[in-house]
C-alpha cells in the first residue's frame, strides 16, 4: 500500500509580495530601475547604513566582556529603556511614573503579532480593527488571520493629490465604540491644533484603542522628537495605547529585524499586568529574542557622542530625500510636464506618492522598465544622479502619452 | 469622569520559570551553586562558546561585502541548506530528491510555534499532541495555548533510574490514530534494532506524525552524525515529519536564538506546498528573521577547516561532560554513598538526572545552598574543579541524612 502524504490536502499558498521584484529581476533591459525597495538607499544605490553602525559592529564583536547567554523573553532591559527614551524623551513624566513599558520584538511583524495576540485575548468584546496608513500594510493580514474584522484605509487622497487628514475623521465617524485603530505615521498628516483636539476627543468618546506604527522615527522630518511629538499629545490626554517601534530602518540594520512593542497604561500596576501577559505570548512566539540588533542600538543610544553622530546621519538622509524630490519637481517643471508637482515635495519620508494614474504607472513599467508599485507610492531614495534624468523624462512621457 | 483603563480586567500572569534562579540570586550564602542553567558552561563557570565563533564574529563585522538588506521571510537560503546538510548528511538522497526543506526560525520557541500553527490549520481532524522528552518541555504550552489536547511524558524512569524506552511504547499503545508525537532527543533512548523496527511500525500503522526536537546536535555523543542517526531510519521508512533544530547551543550563540523548522515530505511537490503555507505563518510571526546567528553558523559550516574546528570544540565539551560525571560517580563511590551511581554515567548530554528523591533534592537546596530543579535533572557542566567536592559531599549528606 503506498503511503498517503500528510500534506496531500495542503495547497500551494498564494504569493503575497515580491512579484514586482521578480519581474524586475527577469527583465533583460539594461536601463531598468526598481523604485519599490522597502529600505532606504544611499546615493550609490545600496541599502543605507548609518555611518556609526559599522564601527559599533566591530566594537561589539571584539568585546570580551560580553555575555552570550540567552536573553530573557522580555528582551534586553537596557535596550527597551533606551528605545522608550528615544520615543518619549529622557525626562518624560510618564516614564518616570513607570507607566510606560515595552517588550523587545523580532522582525517587522513581531510587535503587531504580539499586540494582536494580546488584544485577541483581552479585548474580546471588540474585535474590529481599522488600519489607517500611507499604504496597504502587511499587518492587516496579521489581524485578519487572527479573526479580527479588519478595515483598511489610506491617508492618500488621489484626487486632491495629498495626505488628507479628513480621511481619518471620515473613518472615525463610521468606527464603532471600542474598536482598535492601527495608525501609521500620523505625523505625516500635519494636523492643525484644532484637528488634534477633535481627533483625540472623538477617540476618547468612542473608547477607541490606538495602536501606533512608528516604522522609522527620524525619517519624516529628520528630527526624532518632531516625528513622534503626537505621542506626547496622547500621553497628556491620558490615553492608553500600544506602539510598534521598528528600529531596523533608522539604523540601517534591516537584517537584524529589531523593535519593541510599547505599552502605555494609566498607572504602573496596570502596566505590569499587561506586560506580564504579553510576556507569556512572547515566550510562545520566540522565547528568547536575538540580541545583535538590540546591542548595536543600545550601544549607540547610551553614548551621547555616538547618538549625536547617528542623529546627524539621519538628518543627512532626510536632507538628501528633500533634495531628490526638489530636483524631480524642478526637472518636471523645466520639461513643462502638465500638472502641478507640488505634492512630491509636500510629502515627507522616503516613500511618497507620485500622483500618477494607473495607466501612467503601467506605462512606466511596461514601456520604460521603471518598476513602480500599483499604488504609485515609490521609494525616492532609489532615485540618484545616475538615473534621475531617465526617470523624470519617463514620467514626462507617461503623462504626455498615456491616459490620466 | 475618571478614565477607565483598557487593562482593568487584565490579571498579572503567573510566573512560569526563573523562580529558582531568583531565590538563588537572593541567597547571601557564599558557597551557593546553581546547577539548573539551560546553557552549557565551560570549565571556568561561564557560558560555553565554541572557540571558532569569536573570530567569525569579528570577520563578519569587518566584511565590507555583506549586504544588510532585510532577509526574506523564509530566511537565508545558504543557512537553511547548511543546516539541513548538518542534520541529514551532505549526500543524503532525500535532499537530492528535493523533498527536505526548512525555514529559518527565531529563538527556542520559533520552530514549534511555526510548526504548531501549521498543524492547527492543516491537520484539523487530529489535534492531539503527545510530548515525550527527557523533561517537561516549554513547547507543551505552545500547543496547549493553540487549543491542542496535550499529553506530556518523560523518558526518565525514576524507580529504575534510567532513560526507559518502554515508556515510549506504553504511550504509543494508548495514543489515538493520527495524533502528533513531539519527541525530544530520541537518540538518548538507545533503542535496539528490534525496538526501532517496532517503534516505526506502530507509528506508521497509527499514522502518527513525528515532530522531532533536536536542541543541541553533537552534545549527546560528541558525534554529529551519531546524534541524529535515527532521522535516517525515519527517512528510509518514508515518514513525513517536522523537526525543530536549534543551533544556538551547539555553537554557543545563545543570544542569537537561531534554528530551523525542517519539513520532510514524500516528494518535492508536497514539500513546496507545505513550505509555502509555513511561509505565510512566518510572515505574520516576524516577517524577516534576524540574521547574525545564521551568518555565523553558515560561515563556519561552509568552510571545511572551520567546520572541523567547530566539531573538535564539540567533542571537547562532550569529553569534559563525561569526565565530570565519572569524577562525580567515583567520588560518591569513595565516600561510600549508599546506592548505585551508574545512572550518572549511563546518561548522555549536558543535562542528566541525579536520581535523588524529592526530599534529598530539597535537602540540597535548603541545607546546602545547591540549587537543583525539582525534577532532579541538573546541568553537569555547572560542576567544575572548584565546586565538585562541595557538591559531591553534599549529595552524600543528602542521601545519608534525608529520606529516600
TrEMBL record, chains A, B:
It comes from the Eukaryota. GO terms for biological process: aspartate biosynthetic process. One of its GO terms (molecular function) is L-aspartate:2-oxoglutarate aminotransferase activity. Its EC number is 2.6.1.1. It catalyses: L-aspartate + 2-oxoglutarate = oxaloacetate + L-glutamate. The keyword Methyltransferase does not apply. Its cofactor is pyridoxal 5'-phosphate. Keywords: Aminotransferase, Cytoplasm, Pyridoxal phosphate, Transferase. Belongs to the class-I pyridoxal-phosphate-dependent aminotransferase family. Homodimer. This is Putative aspartate aminotransferase, cytoplasmic 2. The gene is LOC103107895.
Amino acid at each position: 500500500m503506498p503511503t498517503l502524504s500528510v500534506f496531500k490536502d495542503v495547497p500551494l499558498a498564494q504569493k503575497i509580495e515580491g512579484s514586482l521584484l521578480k519581474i524586475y529581476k527577469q527583465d533583460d533591459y539594461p536601463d531598468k530601475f526598481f523604485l519599490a525597495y522597502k529600505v532606504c538607499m544611499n546615493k550609490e544605490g545600496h541599502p543605507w547604513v548609518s555611518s556609526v553602525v559599522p564601527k559599533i559592529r566591530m566594537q561589539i564583536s571584539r568585546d570580551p566582556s560580553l555575555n552570550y547567554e540567552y536573553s530573557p523573553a522580555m528582551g534586553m532591559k537596557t535596550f527597551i529603556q533606551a528605545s522608550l527614551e528615544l520615543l518619549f524623551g529622557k525626562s518624560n513624566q510618564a516614564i518616570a511614573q513607570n507607566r510606560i513599558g515595552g517588550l523587545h520584538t523580532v522582525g517587522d511583524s513581531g510587535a503587531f503579532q504580539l499586540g494582536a495576540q494580546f488584544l485577541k485575548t483581552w479585548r474580546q468584546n471588540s474585535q474590529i480593527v481599522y488600519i489607517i496608513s500611507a499604504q496597504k500594510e502587511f499587518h492587516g493580514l496579521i489581524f485578519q488571520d487572527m479573526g479580527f474584522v479588519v478595515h483598511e484605509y489610506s491617508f492618500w487622497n488621489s484626487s486632491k493629490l495629498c495626505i488628507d487628514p479628513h480621511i481619518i475623521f471620515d473613518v472615525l465617524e463610521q468606527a464603532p465604540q471600542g474598536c482598535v485603530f492601527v495608525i501609521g505615521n500620523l505625523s505625516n498628516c500635519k494636523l492643525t491644533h484644532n484637528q488634534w483636539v477633535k481627533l483625540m476627543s472623538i477617540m476618547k468618546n468612542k473608547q477607541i484603542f490606538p495602536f501606533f506604527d512608528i516604522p522609522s522615527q527620524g525619517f519624516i522630518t529628520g528630527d526624532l522628537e518632531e516625528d513622534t511629538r503626537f505621542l506626547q499629545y496622547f500621553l497628556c490626554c491620558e490615553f492608553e495605547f500600544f506602539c510598534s517601534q521598528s528600529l531596523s530602518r533608522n539604523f540601517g540594520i534591516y537584517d537584524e529585524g529589531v523593535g519593541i512593542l510599547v505599552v502605555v497604561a494609566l498607572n504602573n500596576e496596570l502596566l505590569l499586568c499587561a506586560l506580564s501577559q504579553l510576556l507569556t505570548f512572547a515566550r510562545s512566539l520566540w522565547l528568547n529574542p536575538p540580541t545583535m540588533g538590540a546591542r548595536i542600538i543600545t550601544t549607540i543610544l547610551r553614548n551621547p557622542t555616538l547618538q549625536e553622530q547617528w542623529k546627524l546621519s539621519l538628518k543627512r538622509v532626510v536632507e538628501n530625500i528633500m533634495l531628490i524630490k526638489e530636483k524631480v519637481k524642478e526637472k518636471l517643471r523645466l520639461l513643462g510636464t502638465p500638472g502641478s508637482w507640488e505634492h512630491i515635495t509636500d510629502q515627507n519620508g522616503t516613500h511618497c506618492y507620485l500622483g500618477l494614474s494607473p495607466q501612467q504607472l503601467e506605462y512606466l513599467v511596461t514601456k520604460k522598465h521603471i518598476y513602480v508599485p500599483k499604488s504609485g507610492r515609490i521609494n525616492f531614495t532609489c532615485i540618484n544622479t545616475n538615473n534621475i534624468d531617465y526617470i523624470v523624462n519617463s514620467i514626462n512621457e507617461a503623462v504626455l502619452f498615456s491616459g490620466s
